[in-house]
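Pipeline run #58 for the internal structure catalog. This entry was flagged by the ingest filter as a single-chain record with no existing model, so it goes straight to prediction. Upstream metadata was stripped on purpose; only the residue string is passed forward. Reviewer on rotation: M.T. Logging verbosity set to normal.
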Amino acid sequence: MPKLGAHVSVAGGLATAFDRMKKISGEVMQIFTRNQRQWQAKPLDEHEVEDFKAAFKKADKPFVASHASYLINLATWKEDLAERSTQSLVQELLRCSLLSIPWVVLHPGSHGGKGIDQGIKNCVANLDKAFELAGPKNRTGILLETVAGQGTGIGSDFKELAEIIRASAFSHRLGVCVDTCHIFSAGYDIRSPGAYRRTIDALSKDVGLERVKLFHLNDSKTELGSKVDRHEHIGKGKIGLKGFANLLNDTRFS
């Protein structure tokens, strides 16, 4: 059985996230290290970092990931937005390094009408720039999250994520976060054993299962291939419990 957890609040301080994880018997957690609706983040103070590390150790060092700001768009053709996005990602890489958080989950971004190929090219260039600006001592990795295919977003096709990873000079620091709602909306079915096998085979072939470090388990309000990102509670959407059972019983992700 894979380790299960949740995205938890950091209200009251980053270290409080571990208490919330414990209350749900979680073994993994995702957090926001900062306000996701603002470009600039308040710097972490020494005590906050120390408290987080102490709570992490007390919780027996669970898997922790941060989710980058939703404002970030590395695939954009707009120079000002690309620059702000890159700098925001650098901040997150540095914050996570201080907190010893190994992974930042990131949406690859939207090409804004310039086409998938150009969007991927922009994303790779800005990703690599962020890694470079974070400095040689920074070891924080980035998990590219699958998207639903809504609008001009890139990453709804596993091959697009694979292309970003292959083209990056920092491919060794890139992995994938699979959101079940997003892939379902993008056209990847997991509801039956056969459909699940075909989807995971495609993921394995295009990206490599060793790159998959995290799943976001969400059901979908919309139908298979809808290209619409609308999350639903697990078992209450169009995927259904059997789809999640297929994933949770897959020993490759244990």
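catalog note: The chain has eight helices and nine strands.
catalog note: Strands lie at 5-7, 28-31, 63-67, 103-106, 141-145, 174-179, 212-216, 219-220, 231-232.
status: ready for reviewer M.T.
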